[in-house]
Specification:
The chain is mainly alpha-helical. Helices cover 47% and strands 10% of the residues. Strands 1-2-3 form a three-stranded parallel beta sheet, covered by helices on one side. A three-stranded antiparallel beta sheet has the order 4-5-8. A two-stranded antiparallel ribbon has the order 6-7.
């Protein structure tokens, strides 16, 4: 087996990148990247009726958004059909496979008879040991000549030792009567040819491993390390479905979760490193190991996802949040930030990201920086603009025009003005929020003043003071 770790993610392009598939890809990516290995991508597009270029692109887009880069070009399983058939014919030549001429009607009749007699319905082909001289010139499949005695043992890194009696496994078809390879054969050949050392995938494939091992043994190929991970369940403990909400990665992107938070949350979904909940990509790569994966299904918890995303916003560099905000706006078809608006949002980023958990929340807090004059207050903010408070804003305007535009000076001016009016700054804050942002819930008045600058701030306050 290769000394270098090689993992792979092998989705079927029949729809969006499922959240469960994204976690499988992440686990494979972390395991390879943390060991200086290679992470490969294979598109299992043998189902020609359901595989679409659009679905393939959705998978690539989902992986790109999550930041899961793969090594080399994606491999198309369909394009390897000739190689898969070549291996089946090699197994036939070595006596590890055989031609089966049984019709579908004969197989159905066998199973019905076995069921009626209370016997196993596993099909036992009469052609398994037939003399090739007796073979008719007729359509046939090629079946694996599986061992019927003993056991197949899967030493799984997550599930532990799993033993399956060989008499419970049938002689599976390798090549159909039209010469096309089946999925089970294609997976093994591809994994071998790609040099995959560790197969990390959902535990719904656990039984497949026993059958796939028989192909490895027949070809005298190294068997990869198996790690079958539990599936993701909804908050109610039931298998994840549409009733639980978002299933596709692009839905989480469009809801505005930051990619780093999503990676952190997905890594923590079924894997643990002590009590650590929040960690960086570098820590995840260093810490991730198969021994940390639990055997029980993980449950989606949106509150925990939001909490972790909030921590990632707070910890991220301002420029990286702004760049990802650009991507979010583009992905959701919203207008881009440009010119003075972009400059304001960039200047506001240190306090915008402090309490945001998603990009829509961050944009809500940034509304004061994005809005253009005239600022139209919403219903709640408009209530703060009474005749009395508009008069106060009118009187305040010259004080601001003459102030040095730094935070300490502005705090002194506003607190001094409120005191001269026989009130406290809190009484002034409501009208100022309405004037500067048109909202009653905003960032700090001083933060907004600093971002907007003297001219824009004074113009907004003057507009609000003069409103009827």
């Amino acid at each position: 087996m290769s000394a270098q770790v090689v993992t792979r993610f092998a989705p079927s392009p029949t729809g969006f990148l499922h959240i469960g598939g994204a976690r499988t890809a992440l686990f494979n990516w972390l395991f390879a990247r943390g060991r200086g290995g290679r992470f490969l991508l294979r598109i299992e597009d043998t189902d020609r009726a359901r595989s679409t270029p659009e679905a393939t692109q959705a998978i690539l887009d989902g992986l790109a958004w999550l930041g899961l880069d793969h090594d080399g070009d994606p491999v198309s399983q369909f394009q390897g059909a000739a190689r898969h058939a070549e291996v089946a014919l090699e197994m036939l030549a070595k006596g590890h496979a055989y031609k089966c001429f049984a019709s579908q009607d004969e197989i159905t009749a066998f199973r019905e008879e076995a069921r009626a007699a209370g016997r196993s319905t596993l099909y036992r082909s009469p052609w398994r040991d037939a003399d090739p001289a007796t073979h008719p010139d007729a359509p046939h499949v090629i079946r694996l000549k599986a061992p019927r005695e003993g056991e197949t043992v899967i030493e799984d890194q997550v599930q532990g030792r799993v033993t399956i009696r060989n008499d419970q496994l049938d002689d599976m078809v390798l090549l159909r009567s039209d010469g096309t390879p089946v999925y089970m054969l294609a997976v093994v050949v591809d994994d071998h040819d790609m040099g995959v050392t560790h197969v990390i995938r959902g535990d719904d494939h656990l039984n497949n491993a026993a059958r796939q091992m028989q192909i490895y043994h027949a070809m005298t190929w190294d068997v990869p390390v198996w790690a079958h991970i539990p599936l993701i369940h909804g908050p109610d403990g039931k298998k994840l479905s549409k009733r639980h909400g978002a299933l596709g990665v692009e839905e989480y992107r469009d809801m505005g979760y930051p990619a780093a938070g999503m990676r952190n949350y997905l890594a923590r979904l079924g894997w643990s490193h002590g009590d650590d909940e929040f960690f960086t990509d570098a820590q995840a790569r260093d810490w991730f190991g198969l021994e940390g994966i639990g055997k029980s299904p993980a449950r989606l918890d949106f509150k925990k996802l939001e909490n972790i995303c909030g921590q990632h916003f707070a910890a991220a560099a301002d420029a990286s949040v702004l760049a990802e905000l650009d991507g979010f706006l583009a992905a959701t078809g919203a207008a881009p930030l440009d010119g003075v608006v972009r400059e304001r949002v960039a200047a506001a980023m240190p306090f915008l990201k402090e309490r945001a958990k998603t990009f829509p929340e961050l944009l809500e807090k940034a509304e004061f920086a994005i809005a253009a004059r005239p600022i139209v207050p919403d219903e709640k903010a408009a209530k703060a603009l009474t005749e009395e408070t508009r008069d106060m804003l009118t009187q305040l305007t010259p004080h601001l025009q003459n102030a040095s535009w730094n935070r300490d000076e502005l705090e002194g001016v506003l607190n001094g003005f409120a005191e001269a009016q026989g009130t406290k700054f809190g009484k002034l804050a409501g009208p100022l929020r309405a004037a500067l942002a048109g909202r009653s819930a905003t960032p700090s008045v001083f933060d907004m003043l600093m971002v907007l600058g003297r001219d824009e701030s004074v113009a907004r306050i003057a507009n609000a003071a003069g409103s009827a």
